[in-house]
């Protein structure tokens, strides 16, 4: 933080007040006058001040009369349906810099000097003729218990500060350029010139928790043929891991899950004469998942008990005490089969172009939560005579995912939990726990034949994305992005232009789908209890439309999930610091894999290289670890 000037400075706070769809107006207040009014002005005097300066404020007479007749309270639109919402409201903030700190006041009292909570506050307006117009104007975000407000402040002093007893905070809002920089900070893009059915994959992460509890992995394993009759092929893995109650379980999955699964697949590969098209593949993936979870949950306890060491216990038990969902895709380039293994509520969706030029969205996984009727039935069947095994869509009324790695408090017996808690570390045991384990890491696996020649692509993401966008919106947004790349011409290195053009360059897309997107409405009946979007534009109300501004398609999806063309909303949601941001958005991890035909061309044949244009988050070469 820059050292503040010793001399006090003068500043003006401007707050734009509007309901959705209303014409905005702005009020402003010099610091010195504000402090006098905040400390000594009576309600009558404040009302008189409003009348005297109505012309200076620019407030229409009917609205000004409304203020005068209602104890100086600006009329506000009724709140939205959500308990957490974003809007502009009228407040007064006076600030002055003294010494090395900042003084703030949040004017939120009624006529009886009782604080007005949850962002509803009185507004005092006075003459602004003495305001220093040479000072910079900055946007601010006011964060209260269940609302967001935006406005502008004039001055160059520090802004971030708690401003009232109920924890209301005022912080400087990111401008659009800063918001874009934050959005792209962790983006990566790779061009795959191996002639094995994949031409590119993009990914991005956007933290909400601090540190982020999500993680991800991407691995390409080059398989050498066991016989000389068949050429080599690639095994390609992509995974997103949605952690909860900490980051350690998802980090463990990033480090080890592909290795556990690949070992089991290799054994099946050797036993089946290099054929991975049979049912043994799903069994191998399932075995790899369960072996890793057993190491995390059960073998760790055995090691801790033998060692009787708290330092070792802290290291070994951390991945067991937190938890993580896992979504892992495995593509075998020889068979062109994509297996998607899902443990938890992350989701994979296939995009495929139709003859009309539009795209279809086909889910490749099912959200596994207590709200899923099949999962709830399974739990009740496995734990009869336990009426609270699923309560309010959660396992034992606590955990939303019905399948997960870690989460040992739902898997250990009561005796083990109490012993670990007494001597080492463990979470408190639920009173409803009777017949564990209640949660399993066993994945539900789907198999899909990919058609690279049709430009198939797959979007994999943690549930934070699906809380904001539907399957059709996500696939349509990728289709919209593909159209935009074609219109721009060459968008990546010359090596890959020909492959990309052959795959994605055909037939323009009709814009008749939902939201003007090139996507057909899905005719697939969803499993009851699947998550539907409730955040983003659905939380704030209104939709200014989608936009294409990013070279990385995963970043493009996240931008539109946050607000698209509504730059103010995007900036506000990206400005929110942890833990406040968790009220409005989850951690986000998104991967998009593009399939396509190509023999591997040019000097980079056989390589995976960084797509610099869409990889702000990659330092150095970065790609060697992916192969």
From TrEMBL:
Pfam families with a match to the protein in the record: PP2C (PF00481)
Class of this enzyme: hydrolase
The keyword Hydrolase is assigned to this record: yes
The enzyme's E.C. designation: 3.1.3.43
Domain PPM-type phosphatase: 200-595
InterPro entries, per database record: PP2C, PPM-type-like_dom_sf, PPM-type_phosphatase-like_dom
Keywords associated with the record: Hydrolase
A GO term for molecular function: [pyruvate dehydrogenase (acetyl-transferring)]-phosphatase activity
Record region (Disordered): 39-62
PANTHER family: GM14286P (PTHR13832:SF792), PROTEIN PHOSPHATASE 2C (PTHR13832)
Name under which the protein is recorded: [Pyruvate dehydrogenase [acetyl-transferring]]-phosphatase 1, mitochondrial
Organism: Podospora pseudopauciseta
Lineage: Eukaryota, Fungi, Dikarya, Ascomycota, Pezizomycotina
